[in-house]
Amino acid sequence: MQLQKETKAADQRSHGRWYDDACGTAFALEVIGERWALLIVRELMFGGRRFSDLRRCLPGISAKILTERLESLETSGVVRKVLSPPPLAARLYELTEWGALAEPMLQELGRWAARSTLHDPTMPLSPVSLMLSMRTMIDRDRARLRDADYGFAVGGEEFVARLEDGILAIRRSGDFTSMDCVFRAGTAPPLAAAFYGDVPFEHLEDAGLLEITGSRDAARHLAGALELPPKAV
């Protein structure tokens, strides 16, 4: 009996510490509801990152707060520390299997927020945010008209995406040898402007903000399959 009481007290520190509410939504907020926590989860969605990588992608967060949030997420079972393969052997933070299940929630939050008239899509955007938005805003009916492989070199990060049967699968990789089309941009906003703001590729290329190599038709197909949801009344 004493052991059960001790276990319940230990659980109470992470569940019920804010709301004293058994609802799963309340528990989720207790786990990832503190400032920056959910954005850290977002930045880890495509694989492990170093502490310095997270600082760079979240420039508004201090080292102290980032350390605290990572410790809290690790204690809750959302994040774990691992070592990268040799020869680097750097410490990485990555999502646990349970932590990675947060992606649909992030997608729905993004889709819901984008319908607000207060949402400003022209604000700064991290490369991971752009990649996640593409998985969220893809119109599968339009996308499935063509399969293609895409490479993205954005803001110092590299991803490859496979568009097949309307589903966009994305992973971190720098191997663009077999891609149908490769996008290169110093930051994510120019690509967001092309994909969601209908800014012609040519305008961004002439301004030196975007470089596209490979199939132009594949590039236009991807852009045509991405669209922000309509604003709520």
Walkthrough of the structure:
By secondary structure, this protein is α+β, with helices and mostly antiparallel strands. Helices cover 43% and strands 17% of the residues. The protein has helices at residues 2-12, 24-32, 37-43, 51-57, 63-75, 97-100, 103-114, 127-137, 140-143, 189-196, 201-206, 216-224, and strands spanning 79-83, 91-95, 148-154, 157-164, 167-172, 181-185, 211-214. A 5-stranded mixed beta sheet has the order 5-4-3-6-7. Strands 1-2 form a two-stranded antiparallel sheet. The longest helix has 13 residues, at 63-75. It is globular. The N and C termini lie far apart (55 Å).
Mean pLDDT: 92
Helix coverage percent: 40-55%
Distance between the termini: 55 Å
Low-confidence stretches: 3-12
Overall body shape: globular
Strand order in the sheet with the most strands: 5-4-3-6-7
Strand count: 7
The whole-angstrom Rg is 20 Å
User: With helices defined by DSSP (H or I, 4 residues minimum), what is the helix count?
Assistant: 12
The main sheet comes to: 5 strands, mixed
How much of the residues is beta strand, in percent? Answer: 15-25%
Structural class: alpha+beta
Q: Secondary-structure element sequence?
A: HHHHHEEHHHHEEEEHHEH
Features:
single chain, alpha+beta, 5-stranded mixed sheet, 12 helices, 7 strands, disordered N terminus
